[in-house]
Amino acid sequence: MAKVVVLDELAVDSPTAKAFLTAVPFILVFAVLRYYVFAGATATRSTRSRATSKLKLPPSPPALPLIGHAHLVGALPHVSLRRLAARHGGEGLMLLRLGVVPTLVASSPRAAQAVLRAHDQSLASRPRSVCGDVLTYGPSDVAMAPYGERWRRAKMLVTTHLLSARKVQSYRDAREEEVRLVIDEIQSAASVGAVVDMSKLLSKFTNDMVCRAVAGRSFRVEGRDRVFRELIDQGMTLLGGFNLDNFYPRLAKIAGGVLVWTARRKAQKTRRRWDQLLDKLINEHDCDVAGSDQQDSDFIHVLLSVKEEYGLTRDNMKAILVVSSPIVDAHLFNDVHWHRHSLPSLEFAMAELMRHRDVMARLQQELRSCTNDRQNFISEVDLTGMTYLKAVIKETLRLHPPSPLLLPHFSVQDCEVDGYAVPAATTVLVNAWAIGQDPKIWDAAEEFIPERFSIEGNIGGVDFRGKDFQFLPFGSGRRMCPGMNFALAAIEIMLANLVYHFDWELPKGVDHIDMTEVFGLTVSRKEKLLLAPRLRGILCTQ
After folding, report:
1. CB atoms near residue 197 (< 10 Å)
2. Listed residue (46, 274, 5, 265) closest to 141, CA to CA
3. Sorting pLDDT into bands at 50, 70 and 90, what band is 53?
4. What is the pTM of this model?
């Protein structure tokens, strides 16, 4: 009896699948790829034959010629990959082929631990891309650089001098000042019964916090804040968009890279704008770096003060600044529409609180009972001991991790992962979102229940700092997100003051919040978050 192979459903809503299905019929693309795929497949088989002499490859769905499994990856890849892993992922590991790139997907705590801890060194590199190399100057930054001595020095610099716990604490006054500005703006709206576009407001807060950290001041008056936001937007769009060389890496070398010329040109244009902005800022800072106190100085001052120690070139410094901008927001910018450029975790937290009014009431009770009724601001000192606030943030990160697939890893050598062979040059994805919503691990996994992190009034349960592999919003191991402390400090004080100062309602005529997501380098809500604030004790006038 003939064996029947059941193919997985085509992800017709996927931009990647649409791009592939549109491109494949064209004769030019097919002619170029036919030779390349044949050569690439031969090289892949050779690599696999060495790696699999005694071991088998991870399970994999049936693939199509040329595109592999790319047609199965939907518009929300973390969702479609969880579905595929449930059908094909033995022990939480699944091997896909996206174009000609072998891609290992880890979808369980055991698989994540094997990838991020047991084989951390073998899988600690990053895949290269044309846009990534152009935008990150080589790359020579801490986020996208391949594993090696250059990356180790960049990481040491960032974690020691830019994003250490002590350095993050030094930005306390700046955080509190920016939060006060947001609260003042909301109070003005509440006094006249106006609806507030929280997405836009939180975007401004995020952008201004980044500017304060990078350059020591807000760019609002100078108008540089708009340029700064545009450049991050353009860079994240280029890095998170459909680029052929991500699926067919050797295309970048064929005929002088003519097939990736458009992507390279767009990246170079964005980089030139970064050069103009950063060169001007660095030159301005270079004049007074000698007398600055490193602990109280901004990123640019710090880089100038340690450039001799770390052997930094001007391009090295710019690469760190370009990539540190989204990092300090925990990969917070992701889509071409400005209204989605906010702190996704903070916006998701407010959306979930509006959908769960009992949780909102309990959080308000904690915040308002732990402070003086006449207190007009909650400072970071006041946050000590506010365990339910921390539980709400942890539950938000569990359901809505900023980067649901984390940043991709890359194998630098053949290795064995949980009994399976993983060839060199394999891209590795960890589905942190799927792990955080696994019903085998979490009770009522898809429900927003902060109490799961509150034990007898104290914050408890699993933690997100990389040791508990069932909860990985910031990753784990050598490539764990270094901006975690910066992001958490901003989220805590902003959320606390939003909930403390105001009672919140949906705008008139709106009876629910749309939680539809859009995917980029991070995930955010599709629709603006519009809310009606009212001052405590004052009835809404709408």
Report:
1. 16
2. 274
3. low
4. 0.88
How many other C-beta atoms are found inside a 10 Å radius of the C-beta of residue 225? 17
Amino acid letter, residue 270: T
Which alpha helices (DSSP H) does 254-343 contain, by range?
A: 261-286, 299-310, 314-327
Structure tokens at 131: 């846009």
Confidence of residue 537 (pLDDT cuts 50, 70, 90): low
Question: How far is it, in rounded angstroms, from Cα 61 to Cα 301?
Answer: 51
Q: Scanning the structure block, which residue is given the tokens 């990078």? A: 214
What's the DSSP call for residue 160?
I
Q: What angle do CA 327, 404, 336 make, to 5 degrees?
A: 65
Residue that is written with structure tokens 């244009």 in the block: 269
Predicted local distance difference test score (pLDDT) of residue 518: 87
Residue 427 in contact with residue 143, Cβ under 8 Å? no
Angle at 367 between CA 366 and CA 368, to 5 degrees: 95
DSSP 340: G
Residue 100 has φ and ψ, to the nearest 5°, of -115, 10
Say which CATH topology domain 149-535 has.
Cytochrome p450 (1.10.630)
At CA 518, angle to CA 516 and CA 519, rounded to 5? Answer: 140
Instruction: Please calculate the CA angle 259-260-265 and round it to the nearest 5 degrees.
Output: 130
CA-CA distance, 235 to 266, in Å (whole number)? 9
CB neighbours of residue 37 within 10 Å: 20
Instruction: Measure the CA–CA gap between 442 and 94, rounded to whole angstroms.
Output: 22
Can you tell me the distance from the alpha carbon of 120 to that of 131, in angstroms, rounded to the nearest whole number? 26
Q: What SS3 class is residue 233?
A: helix
Q: What pLDDT sits at residue 210? A: 82
Say if residues 204 and 343 touch (Cβ distance below 8 Å): no
DSSP one-letter code for 92: T
Q: How far apart are CA 437 and CA 381, in angstroms?
A: 33
pLDDT tens string 454-509: 876 666 778 899 999 999 999 999 999 888 998 899 999 999 999 999 999 999 99
Known binding-site residue numbers: 481
333 band by pLDDT with thresholds 50, 70 and 90: very low
Angle CA 16–19–24, to nearest 5 = 120
C-alpha to C-alpha distances, 255 to 27, 251, 459, 493, nearest whole angstrom: 17, 8, 58, 53
Q: Where are the domains of the chain?
A: 149-535
Annotated binding-site positions for heme: 481
DSSP string, 108-157: SHHHHHIIIIITTTTT-B----HHHHHHTTTT-STTTSPSSHHHHHHHHH
CB atoms within 10 A of CB 525: 21
DSSP 213: H
Residue whose C-alpha is closest to residue 61's, from 72, 76, 75, 47: 72
* Residue 2: per-residue pLDDT: 43
Which amino acid makes up residue 490? Answer: A
Rounded CA-CA distance 407/368 in Å is 38
